[in-house]
Hints:
Layout: H1 2-17, H2 20-26, E1 31-36, H3 38-41, H4 44-53, E2 56-59, H5 65-68, H6 78-89, E3 93-101, H7 107-110, H8 115-132, E4 139-144, H9 157-162, H10 165-177, E5 182-187, H11 195-209, E6 216-219, E7 222-224, H12 231-239, E8 244-255, H13 260-278, E9 283-288, H14 298-301, E10 305-306, H15 319-328
Parallel strand pairs: 1-2, 1-9, 2-3, 3-4, 4-5, 5-6, 6-8, 7-8, 8-9
Antiparallel strand pairs: 8-10
(3S,4R)-3-hydroxy-2-oxopiperidin-4-yl beta-D-xylopyranoside is lined by residues 60-61, 144, 220, 249, 297.
Amino acid sequence: MKSISILAILLAPTAVFGLLDAKFKAKGRRYYGAIADPNTLSNTQVQTLLKTEFGAITPENSLKWDATEPSRGSFNFGNGDQTVNFATSNGRLVRGHTLVWHSQLPGWVSSITDKATLTTVLQNHVTTLVSRYRGKIYAWDVVNEIFDDSGNFRQSVFYKVLGETFVDIAFKAARAADPAAKLYINDYNLDGPGNKIDQLLALVNRLKSRGIPIDGIGSQAHLILGQVGGVQAQLVRLGATGLEVALTELDIRIPKDVTSAKLSQQQNDYATVTRACLAVSNCVGITVWGVSDRNSWVDSTFPTYDSPLLFDDNFAKKPAYNGVDGALN
Length: 329
Ligand code: XIL
């Protein structure tokens, strides 16, 4: 009797405090993560939640091109190092985000017009970042948002100058620099059927047939309240490639004004999305794009929406948290 109650106490932390990452791992998955960077890590409540609830960290901005290589060949890893060190020193996985993206890209890159220069620049950028964090990064988003909303290749400098081969160049350089890191293609609007996901899947097949080292597909999952019903069916299609899949930037934004009815809808929506990942055996992880509603890109990007995350402005659990927790129990 006594030993049983001691055992119960020992097991209590997971059961009572509901560490999302531990529960997700108990379902055979790899991580339930969130984002960070020095600007949010400076808040001790953010640090505490990252340590208690989340098992992986994606640097929100500090590994992007404008932050890491603001001018050609001159690299800056101050914020990236701080975030990666916080994660690894606390035993957390890191998702590296992101090597090749049209946005947050310095002007000196977008003004390159010749193939040889852009190839060298691309290889050098990828090799430098991936080598620096070799052995510390679980997965890299090698290419991000390379399709536009219609499913055509986005007319980025990379595509305009190099065509589709920019993808091959980036993945090959990443693999060479850290053979153990999982290499992902990442994009948004993969939550519903349409040309975009069709084209992404077609590209993944071409990459595989050319022997390009790709390991995973990230579906950002920036979702809108009440519009999450398509997530599972599309995740099944992504998973059918045999690659790892992950929800890499999950948030579910609420059209203003926020009411308690909308917060309970959000709870259901988070539960639905969690179950969608659990329904796909190779869905290895979920990352929420923010710890608390206090720090979310939604405020500035979608000003008519609010409150997309699991914890509120004061770091208290929202019904959304219970949605995830309930789906994991
Ligand atoms: C966002 C960050 O959250 C913001 O702080 C930044 O100002 C803009 O970028 N898709 C992505 C992420 O792949 O990198 C974006 O992050 C959100 C959309």
